[in-house]
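Reopening this one. Same input as before:
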Amino acid sequence: MRYRDAGVDINAASRAKSQIKELVSKTFNPRVLRGFGAFGGFFSLKGLPRDAVLVSSMDGVGTKLKIAFAANRHEGVARDLVFHSVNDIAVHGARPLFFLDYLATGKIRGKVVTDIVRGLSDACRQVGCALIGGETAQMPGFYAENEYDLAGCIVGWVRQREILDGSRIRPGDVILGLPSLGLHTNGYSLARKVLIEQAGIGLSQYVPELGRRLDEELLAPHRCYGPMLDPLHQKGWLNGLVHITGGGITENTPRILPANCQAEIQLCPHHGWRHYREHPAHSSCELPSGNPTGVLARTARLQPDRRTWESPPGGDAAHFQHGPGHAADRSRKERGKGHPRSQEEERKVLGGGQNRSRPG
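Same output, byte for byte:
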């Protein structure tokens, strides 16, 4: 009895490693102290400020992978994983240093592994992050045929005095939304249930309201906000940031609000596909998790001459949507004097001082 008889192809794993070596090495920089193939990744912190703090996050792609399996497109979801992770630490003011990935599958398929690592490598190079380690696990009988799971861990840094944690948020601060390119990597269980199972739309079906096929819409990339947020953070314009992931605006926003603040956000009515495509940042209420607003930024009151907000550095096609809402004082009594909130208004007010889900 050999490994191959149990479904584990060691030779396929070895071939895959040799194919991805060059892709991984392209992400290396002078801080990477050991090459490809060591048991651990070595990364030097030399040159970082004395008050540098390491910031880490770990995540997966989720059921967006089901769409990638069906479409046989794998590079994109790998890039999504890196960009999602960069966003998770960018909202605390951190810049990426290095990344590690975990890929598990029932049977090694060389081209698929190479496509995934190519996507990871490409994304890491775009954000200046070294891919210093990873695991490719071959687990026969554990996953369905031609399926895999993909997760990653990122480590970045920020100066301690520059950490964004929401503590500087004050009543009257403006809340701005940065639009996403789609669902990013959240809400796919709901989207698959509604669009594919209930509505019966095929992944390869052209949807006129979207102007493209359904699989192209659902595989739209996870936008990386780090490059556009960093220069704004360096200017001291940001008091807090929220990465809008699973749970949407309602669940993620309270994670950074001080106890004396609440977020008042104007929600929109349901407008359907066309409005979603034309005004993505205005459609946050249509999909409660993984909604089309990717990041919420809190800043002091806008000044008329701050035109940079309309076209942030590195923003490519992204822009700030002026005024989803603002931060309000929880202790204010004016609203309660003769003007009780309706149930609809209550749903639009998000309280602070609570962490409703685990970090990362």
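So the earlier flakiness isn't reproducible anymore. For the record, The domain at 4-162 is CATH 3.30.1330.10 (60s Ribosomal Protein L30; Chain: A;).
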